[in-house]
Amino acid sequence: MDNQKFRERLSQILTQQNLAESKVSVMMGRSRTYLNHIINGRSSMRVEDFLKFCTCTQISPIEFFHTEGTLDEVIQKVEQDFSGLDAHYKLLLSSLIHGLSQQPPK
Q: Which end of the chain is more exposed for a tag (fewer CB within 10 A), N or C?
């Protein structure tokens, strides 16, 4: 991911979570304009600050860099595929999902 895409991703996450740059900047222990300067390319972000950003926005570093298909898009695709199945396969798939989601015995 290049610098421009990194800055765009920061902005995208803030927008998706309806968070203000200034609020998250302060949550990170930085000045109110810190993220604005990063997003506009006037400054660079240190790794420590990137990890703070992830913590403040409750997103993992892996999720930050995984931009191919958001979780909402994946769920939407699964719903479309599921709706095209006949009832027998829907029941089988539902049973499989239920079985996978169960806690293993202790």
A: C
The SS3 assignment for 82 reads: helix
Distance of CA 61 to the CA centre of its chain: 9
The answer to whether the beta carbons of residues 22 and 36 sit under 8 Å apart is yes
Report yes or no: 59 and 78 within 8 Å, Cβ to Cβ: no
| Closest C-alpha to 35, from 24, 47, 46, 51 | 24
Question: How sure is the predictor about 85, in pLDDT bands with cuts at 50, 70 and 90?
Answer: confident
Q: In this structure, what token pair is assigned to residue 77?
A: 């695709």
pTM above threshold 0.90 = no
